[in-house]
Fold each of these.
Amino acid sequence: MISRRLVRIKALQALYSFQQGESIAQFQWPNLTPKEKDYFNETLSNLIESIQQSHDFCLFLLDFPFQLSQYLLEEQTLEKAKFYPDQQKIRSLGLLDRMPLIKYLHRAVTDTQRKSFPFDWSDLSAQFPGWYQWMQEWTFVQDMNIFDEPTFEQQQAFLEEFYANLFETKESFFDSLNDYYSGWGDDELYTTREIEKTIQGAKSNGTVPVAGSPTKDSEEIEMAQHLFLATAKNSAAYEAQVAEISDNWDPSRIAVMDLLIIKLTLTEFLHCPTIPVKVTINEYLEITKNYSTPNSSRFVNGVLDKLRIVMEDQGLIAKSGRGLRDK
């Protein structure tokens, strides 16, 4: 469920956190001190948790329409209790409740979320009235209110547009999520794509394609741990390799984030035999554009290209599988 790029970003952040205040290249692997072992294990544990929270927050957002519908039903009850209730308002407040797909999504989230699920919409419920007012302004919401029983396809189209409007036009909604969950800025692209795929993949019989929470045996966490462990343990060797091909540059003068990205790339070159070299380079160049300095991408690309040529000439890069042996 979690993209490989996001896994790479999480591993990069873990490495950055791990080396704050001291260089991981100076660690004497495997003979770490008890303090270093504790620090290492804590960072690794935080890495795993960050990936699980990315999945959690995606589920959390998938459940938003249902949670909003419950608030609106409470408002509907209050309106119905008035001496002169507004029938049009009552109808509008029940719009989300008339969509079975929203209930299917809620059931899938409830069935999938882990016991230690860290997010709760009650923490943000004070903002529901304002968010409902946005909904009232959207033409597609007004159009949908005409239907007593919208078709399943109409429900899917509605929810896709609903999320698109929230994510693309409402900066304050983004800010609210960012204040609530510190990883939202990193997860946004992955999460919005996953929500769209989930809605499109849902079936009218109630089936919703939601993956379970990542575990220590899942592909995402195994990849993240592998990238983190291999990069940390080979950090000194990687720095020596970078120094050899970087004219007038030594690792101590390279921006911290640039050097970590280069090291992660080397891990994939040397220790991830099923990932094509070109894919690795392209992925980390895209990450560089978002997580390092404006000029970093060109520098990192130059270093990686030199390293690739040298390592391929030395026979150090061995890729297996269809289409992976081509340079």
Note: The chain has a mean pLDDT of 91.
Amino acid sequence: MQVAEINISSVIADLLYEHNCVIIPGFGGLVGNRAPAQLDENKNTFYPPYKKLVFNSHLLMNDGLLSAALSKKENISFDESTKMLDAVVKNWQSALKGGKEINVHQVGKFKKAKDKSIAFHQDFSVNYLPEAFGMQAIHVAATQRNTIKEKISRQIIDSTIPSAKSNKAILKIAAAIAVPIAASALFLAINLPGKNSAELNWNPFLWNFGTSEVIKPLIKPDVTITIVRPEDFFSREELLKIYADKLNAPNQELSTSVVKDDLPKQNTSYTASSQFHVIAGCFADENNATTFTEELKAAGFDAHIVGKTPGGLTRVAYGTYSNKLDALKGLANARLKHSASAWMSEE
């Protein structure tokens, strides 16, 4: 291949990246169209989208694109580049008439077909589609699947021939099931006797089996779920009065509240600085928290804002207490008079 042909081939290849039509004056035009990604099932290969090139022998007029690019690359005038193109095209046409094949580097091959037209075969080693830059073909290994006959045969063999290995597997599964059940039974036996369900510690890792002491976790949760029964803090007469007041005047505060004498004694071993908040809700917007606080005050609660959660939400409390029994009673009162979703937080 002559130097001029090599240079022209390089210029054509460069133009195909930016243009969808490159005309070789007096020879024909290369037209590019986007082709989607494809799957070759025979080769189990995914191919990325690419620019498919089609040769049109009727595009013969010089539009100046190739001549101007060749002129710039060779640093020659436009007329000189046009004459160079004409000379190369004459050589190509002569070679095609003689039955030879024209190879334009990284573009494709031209040859005469049986009907004397020019056939073009694209070189797929280069993808001229800009959006597919860096994409490569992906080969996927074929999945090996057993036929239905093989599966049935295998199942018959497995079910008819006893296996010591399978027996060991069954024993392992049985042991894996029995150990958690035994541990749960032992844990419940230690925790349940004489305990109120509101006081049980359902985490076996926090129980000191050597003593009757519950080990407090190092990290206190922001939300403590507390089981509160109203009958543990109010007498039957008081509960009837609360329900009557709630129907007649929902916003009226309890006038009196007496703890029952037969209440089980609670654990009160807390420091003097311990505080118990009966929480009404958490708000992302502080203005909403302030508005809700005023509503609770109007309903008869000693409501106030008690800081924020680790997530940044502003907490509104029905009230704050230094004694846990008073806090539990306040929690029962809030759930009866206002919202069943009230909860208690210790700090």
Note: The helical segments are 3-18, 65-74, 78-97, 148-160, 164-191, 236-248, 286-298, 324-337.
Amino acid sequence: MGSSSAISRRSFFGAAVALSVVSGARAQQPPHLLTKGIWPNGARAAVSLTYDDGLNSQLDYAIPELDRRELKATFFLTRYNIQWRLADWETVAKQGHEVANHTMTHPCALTGLNTARFEHGEIDRMEAFLDSNFGTDRQRTFAYPCGYLGVGHGDRRERFARYRRILERDGVVAARTTAGGPNRPEMAAADPLHLHAFEPTFEGDTMGPALRYLNETVAQGGWAILVFHDVLPKWHSEGDASVATHAKILAQVAALDVWCAPMGQVFDYVEGHWGKPA
């Protein structure tokens, strides 16, 4: 379970749901590009760098590169993975990176789970653990393990609605999956528990997918959320990123006219500017 190869896999169910929502949403939006200046300091787009599972390789390779470039990221943690290096993760949070909920044990197959047991054992307990070790004033964001968006039995909408209710009861304000195009800010504000995200090295250790995604985000004036898992000296399997490719992606982010900030911070800005009036 501690190995990322066992838990860092994208759910095809989650991807299919996200892509279907993206397609429908795009059809409803007017065909225009968002204008420059809507993001802080006049940036053309926003980017959030996110890392799943709380893996040792993120401490050893990803965070030093982020710190070298003065970039802040969001780390979605599981209790199982971080317990052995908890002090290191506490330091990460103190340095300005965001830490957030990715459940206690990273369950992916949720169809047969008892909803109350899942809520208490995976979501409530992880929020309590984060409160105890990282404070209660943190932004409450979430990443769906494996991108799987439904809990329990029923059709797709019932399962997703059930998952949303669990997150809402725990005070989660924004949740990220692992599929979909750049987020339009007004849509992110309207549906914050279904933020789109992109795994740039899911299928291979190349720069091309990340470049296309970032360029599309800048062209639209949107919000890109990148997803990483293991960051290793060499790419081994889907979901990984080599140290070299990871560094190149961060360099590209730093070079673009974008606002790069943790997911919770960007969502605060989105909610403040595109959320419904009180």
Note: The beta strands are 45-53, 74-77, 98-101, 141-143, 174-176, 223-228, 231-232, 241-242, 258-260.
Amino acid sequence: MIAPMRARPPAALSVLAVCATLAAFTAVPAPLSAQRPSTWRCKHVLAEDGTSWREDQVVTTLLDTIVSVRPARPDETVDRDFGDAWMIPGLIDLHTHLLLRPYNLMTWDDQVKKESDGLRTLRAAQHARLTLLAGFVAVRDLGTEGAGNADVDLRAAMDEAFVRGPRLYTSTRAIALRGCYGPDPLDPTTKKGAQTVAGIDEVRAAVRAQAAAGADWIKVYADYRHGKDGPVAPTFSLEELQALCDEARAAGRPVAAHATTDEGIRRAVLAGVRTIEHGGGASEATLLLMQEKGVVLCPCLAANEAIVEYAGRKGPVVQRLNTARVGFQRALAAGVTIACGSDAGVFAHGENGREIELMVDYGMTPAQALAAATSGAAQVLGAADLGVIRAGARCGLVVLGGDPLQDVRNLRRVQAVVRESDERRLPW
């Protein structure tokens, strides 16, 4: 059955507002032209320092750019007045897996082995929408976990505006050492959750192939279990990791490294990666090395908590949560730059803000944690025009029902998300 086509509205919104309380995209009054600026009034707008509020401000946007931020004028008319609310820059999550769903719904092995790439991609579109509704306007997706280059397809769909979601930074298949990544690591006939390679030549070829396929980042597993039930240990040699980073640098792609052991982290840092994912096992010396080289930690605290929760908070898996907490606190004390990376997909998409809450629970101030998910994360992406509300920045505004600098849980109270729009980006 073919449904009748809906008539296209004659005018286009210059900005899209998303009302999270309704869990649906809602329109604001449509300007006469897609080129007409839109104005948004809010009682509290986060200042560029990330620690204070500008009071009673009007933010003017034009398509995907903030044109101005200024005090409101008496009795002026704006396109939308959010009233006594708090406006922050759109949030950023540097470690997601949009092609995964929570492991308590289906195990990781079964998702990779039993579900089709098509089904997982269709589901990922809904995951992207939920992520945006939660206030995250950009994500770095660190591996499709067996779904090939589906993240590149999802990014193209969002660029064409028939899928709603955050800006998507892709890494396609990720790279792991042969025999160290599942499902069934030692069985070459089983579909794997990453591109498995061995030796410098294969490492270089994988980087070139993933960059050519559309990866914005290269993700490598610098340590992992050896075999099905073996211990976690470094995978690639320092020389192999250096070759990987060298090839990625030639292609203009930064590198993110999954690493949990001290030696795996150390090798990745020496090789030239930009971020360490997880990183709980870093020694004081390795943390100092990270700090000296400006390597950023994305701790994935929320994923660890979820895995412990799925296990009923019993058994040896509980140590995983303890290691993550202690590792985070040591990195914070050592002055390592920490950015928000949650590993969403292990747990439900749209719950990404749990990572920021755990950062505060483990020792950050709310302002530090908010910066880790806005301006700090934007710096990791090389996107200085994200993560801040100022003239010239890209539009990505989140309106909250409470002050997140007083209580970080107010990040859950999303009232609206403002993103760019043109003729194609009309509300559903």
Note: The chain has two domains: 15-89+388-420, 91-381.
